[in-house]
Design goal:
Elements lengths: L17 E4 L6 E10 L4 E6 H6 L14 H8 L7 H16 L15 E2 L2 E2 L1 E5 L11 E3 L7 H9 L6 E5 L6 E5 L3
Parallel strand pairs: 7-9
Antiparallel strand pairs: 1-2, 2-3, 4-5, 6-8, 8-9
Helix pairs in contact: 2-3
Length: 180
């Protein structure tokens, strides 16, 4: 589990930042891709401090936020948490997930894998910020997708990124691929 962003491994963050001036606090810092709109302006990058502290309603929602309640239900079966506790866990997960920079470049939709009732941790892109080995990674996507035929090794070197993830609660690892 990342200490800076829950769903991104700390050791890969430097591969996805760009030095610059944050549009929100005007500090010189490492900037990460995230879509923020305060009603008077839009920015597609921000520093860690601003990502963590700007109002959540300013940060563009991710497609997968709609499944957070079902993830909480999977992780904590009915009867194990009170309704208030479940609500608090849902809010916390939504906050952590929405404040996660868009490092896997999901072009078509937010296809972030989930396992054990939680989103997985992004550990890098195959052949770029994660150099292997790749055995043990399972495909996350449609069963009839052509990417399965080639596998991770067969996809490396192309123009598109192969994003890798690991479950923070069990040993499962996943890979995704979205062509441009």
């Amino acid at each position: 589990m990342g200490t800076i962003f829950t769903y991104i491994a700390d050791d890969v963050l430097s591969n996805y930042s760009e030095a610059g001036t944050c549009a929100w606090c005007e500090s010189n810092a490492d900037l990460y891709t995230i879509y923020i709109d305060d009603g008077s302006g839009v920015a597609d990058v921000a520093c860690v401090k601003c990502i963590k502290t700007l109002p959540l309603r300013w940060i563009h929602p991710k497609d997968n936020e709609r499944i957070i309640a079902s993830l909480i239900n999977t992780r904590y079966p009915r009867g194990t948490k009170s309704q208030d506790q479940r609500f608090a866990l849902t809010v916390e997960m939504c906050d952590d997930y929405r404040r996660t920079p868009r490092l896997p470049n999901f072009i078509q939709n937010d296809d972030w894998p989930h396992c054990c009732g939680d989103f997985t941790e992004f550990v890098g892109d195959a052949g770029r910020s994660y150099l292997g080995p790749f055995d043990g990674f399972e495909w996350w996507g449609d069963e009839n997708d052509g990417a399965i035929e080639y596998g991770i090794d067969g996809m490396i070197g192309g123009e598109d990124r192969i994003s890798l993830f690991r479950c923070m609660h069990c040993s499962k690892r996943y890979w995704t691929f979205q062509c441009t």
